[in-house]
Amino acid sequence: MKKLLLATAVAALSVSAAHAAPTVYGNVLLTTDYVDGNLTVKKDGNKLIDEDYSTTQLNSTGSSNLTGSRIGFKGAEALTANTDLVYQLEYGIDVDADQGRNFRSRDTYIGLSNKQYGTLVAGRLSAIDDNINYAGQTVSLYDTYSTGFSVEAADEETADILGVDEGETVKLGLAYWDGNRANNSLAYFSPSYNGLQFMGMYVMEEKNSTDLWTESEAFGAGLKYEPTNQPFRAGATYIKSSDFSTARVSGAFDVNAATTLGALYQVTDLDKDKNENLFTLSGSYAIPATKWKAYAQGDMVKNMSGLDGLDGSRFVVGGKYGFNAATTGHLYTGYSKIEFSEDGSDLDASGFGLGAGLEYKF
Predict the structure, then answer these.
(1) For residue 65, which of 25, 107, 28, 24 has the smallest C-alpha distance?
(2) 8, part of any domain
(3) Is 3 part of any domain?
(4) pLDDT grade, residue 342 (50/70/90)?
(5) Burial (Cβ within 10 Å: 0-12, 13-18, ≥19) of residue 62
(6) Strand partners, 74
(7) Is 16 a domain residue?
(8) 67/7 Cα distance (integer angstroms)
(9) % of the chain surpassing 90 pLDDT
(10) Rounded CA separation 328/68 (Å)
């Protein structure tokens, strides 16, 4: 009996050893942010809303693939000499809270990766245009283009200006689309051919309204070019649904070993009055003989959320201090502004922000 138990245990250990253990990875980011701003809404010169606000808060969340606190498990299992099963389970963490946004699903998927034919994954995925943001430098308070102001349509006139129902609260993010995640998604990534890679995606129409503006199925295709030992990178994507489409182009150029310039342009059709247009320009500079990298980023949006005349802008400067390969200190300040004026209706929202924090990657 003892020999049988020993043989069973050895067999179990052998099976376990045959399976590759998943890689545990994560990111812990926590910043202290101070924001001071004003929101004014007028109709024919009469102020409907005139509010000043000031707040200090801890931030640790982020929606993009590159920012925000998270923990994940990923790995690969060889099925044949050329094909692996690949998987990832990644969850967002709110470091300074005990509920709500903790352990929310980020990119979670399972799929197949073939050395010759590429990788196909399915699950909850970031849209393919999130892979070609070569201009983004900001973190935390200015993490994404969706950062903005909230306005409550407390009366009929305010609701009319905002184009919503009375009593509804509207979040005026800088840009409506920002490489959002989508449930029930499939994505394909080709092998890289001399730095050139094709990307494709398909989103099923089943309950994806929480992730995409449209409730219809969506398709997307894109290319990115990242040649080895070259000072430039670039990409372009297009995503289309029945009543929604967005196109993005982005690139970066290393002026020298210390200086990099990046740019992004995006046009989004929300089936409204106008197309939303977003333009970002950024630059970073690694300060010689120090561990500091300084950066600046400017974002301009015309016809926010497809509303004619609703425009926004944001300007951020900051620094990143590399304590070591895993730990980074952050310091930044920024100014945001959203404005609208038409037929006696005026909206003006502006805010100043200042933040500092630490980030640890494992």
Answers:
(1) 107
(2) no
(3) no
(4) confident
(5) buried
(6) 23, 88
(7) no
(8) 48
(9) 56
(10) 13
**Alpha-carbon distances of 105 from 30, 125, 200, 275, rounded to whole Å:** 19, 10, 22, 30
Q: Is residue 138 one of the residues assigned to a domain? A: yes
Q: What is the pLDDT of residue 213?
A: 55
Q: Give the tokens for residue 299.
A: 């974002």
Domain range spanning residue 200?
21-361
SS3 sequence of 289-315 = CCCEEEEEEEEEEECHHHCCCCEEEEE
Strands, E, within the chain: which ranges? 23-43, 46-59, 70-78, 83-92, 104-105, 108-114, 118-126, 148-152, 169-173, 181-189, 196-203, 218-225, 232-241, 244-254, 259-269, 276-286, 292-302, 311-322, 327-342, 345-361
**How open is the CA angle 160-341-49, to the nearest 5 degrees?**
60
Contact 90, 72 (CB under 8 A): yes
The pTM of the full predicted model, rounded to 2 decimals, is: 0.87
Write the CATH number for 357: 2.40.160.10
Which amino acid, 323?
A: F
Q: How many domains does the chain have?
A: 1
**Six token digits for residue 113:** 């990766």
